[in-house]
């Protein structure tokens, strides 16, 4: 039986005619017979990914330190749950209250271009409240806070945050947690892992560890029929400001690039735009600082080598979701090196 939502039957052998009739049966039941697709919430990215992330996919999200990988990852998870699906975040980097502060501010800013509470306002309010006020009352005192609280309560049971440890949160634990969430919610979750180099793997040497981690996560994506978005750190050499980060700059890049179905690299636009756009219009420097370029460097199921730009709103822990293809010339046209 073809059961798109069920576990993958690895090692099974079926003739094509059996697969055809099983697919026919699923379609007649009114269910989709292909991969399940999770919209990213960023229309321009969904277009390139022909709908969004797919079950069975390993997606890498790379970029220099502090350029918004966690921000984008958490926003993707938020977008997934806001659209009615479930998400599971394995956070090796941040405590859950840090993610909560970002989510509250992100939600306050969603759909409201006015003055709403930033991440710092939310953090300050949570850290200094000593009068026994409820969370509802506390957030009610912040611009956009009540709306944000209501939104978070609305999807609160669909977003699971796992405070992961580089010592104990192994692939086996991740797999068991994904299974537990799938069973509890009745839905396979979108999985975010922040970040892959922290995953403890029992191998000698960094390259071997990252190879095993990437293989394990790809296997998880296939067997649990989930998309796994894994944030990836850069190699030391790639961390200099002004350097354009590429897939080959990720730590353990050869294994990562091989296993991944999709590779997204986030760079600051001002770092990677060709000089002619900066020297003839100095105002561009300031404008471009406000934008990030998300390069789709690998895309197994669609067009690759696409550069999308999104305006940063890091004050609210987010990017603006409206974005478009970059029209300026970017440095270094050779994008994905396999
Ligand atoms: N309140 C704020 N206002 C403006 N910028 C902020 C605020 N809070 C965080 N930032 C900036 O947002 C940026 C993105 O942070 P994020 O954690 O998403 O980056 P990252 O690429 O995941 O970083 P790392 O590699 O260190 O994990 C950082 O440069 C940070 O300085």
Automatic annotation (TrEMBL):
Residues 31-326 form the SF4 helicase domain. It comes from the Bacteria. InterPro entries: DNA_helicase_DnaB-like_C, P-loop_NTPase. One of its GO terms (cellular component) is cytosol. One of its GO terms (biological process) is DNA replication. GO terms for molecular function: ATP binding; DNA helicase activity. Coiled coil: none annotated. This is SF4 helicase domain-containing protein. It comes from Terrabacter aerolatus.
